[in-house]
Amino acid sequence: MPRFAAERTLLAPLEDVWTFVAEPFNLPDWFPGVSGVQPDRRGLAPGARWEVLGPDRPSFLKKPDASGKLLVLEVVPMRRLAFQLTGQHLDAELDLADVEGRQTQATLVVDAPFLTVRRAFPHQALSRLYDLVQTGVE
């Protein structure tokens, strides 16, 4: 299974980035391919299963993703979030690290079957996240 990774320094403190990422309803804002989410009662916790909506746009090799499941695999507060989109067999791991107290180093690794995502997928996700959490800009 192909593995794609990207790193980006976010202009926000780690606490701000984690607060944003830990809110399930923010996932569609930064993670490509997810247009809506309905978390289960556990929220962001290992083993939680969320309903997700995908884009309703078909492409050349792909039919529209009407809905699916997201399984939260691992949560290490302020450090790591790992989940799987079960319908697409896509695994995502987001690692966060503090950079001098005012910035956050984000690393996103995505494992997905061939042709499910493009090489730019994790870069696109981190670019969206960068745009959404720029609280550290002076």
If you had to describe this structure to a student in words, what would you say it looks like?
The protein is α+β, with helices and mostly antiparallel strands. The protein is built from 3 helices and 7 strands, in the order βααββββββα. The chain has helices at 14-21, 27-30, 121-132; strands spanning 3-10, 36-38, 49-53, 68-76, 80-85, 90-99, 103-111. The chain has a 7-stranded antiparallel beta sheet with strand order 1-7-6-5-4-3-2. Strand 5 and strand 6 (90-99) form a beta hairpin. The model has no long low-confidence stretch (mean pLDDT 89).
Concise account of the structure shown:
By secondary structure, the chain is an alpha+beta fold.
Which regions contain 5 or more consecutive residues with pLDDT less than 50?
Answer: none
Number of E strands = 7
Q: Strand order within the widest sheet?
A: 1-7-6-5-4-3-2
SS strand fraction: 35-45%
What does the radius of gyration come to?
15 Å
Number of helices: 3
Any key phrases for this structure?
138 residues, 7-stranded antiparallel β-sheet, globular
Which SSEs are present, and which pair or pack?
Layout: E1 3-10, H1 14-21, H2 27-30, E2 36-38, E3 49-53, E4 68-76, E5 80-85, E6 90-99, E7 103-111, H3 121-132
Antiparallel strand pairs: 1-7, 2-3, 3-4, 4-5, 5-6, 6-7
